[in-house]
Amino acid sequence: MTLVEHLGIESAFLPKDITGAAQVGDYVCLKGYQHVTIVLQQGAWAGGTPAVTLFQATDVAAGNEKALSVTKRWTKVGVSGTTFVETAVAADTFNLPAVANTVNVLEVDADQLDVTNGFDCLTVKVASPGANADVLSGVYLLSGARYMGATMPDAKID
Question: What pTM, to 2 d.p., does this model score?
Answer without folding.
Answer: 0.93
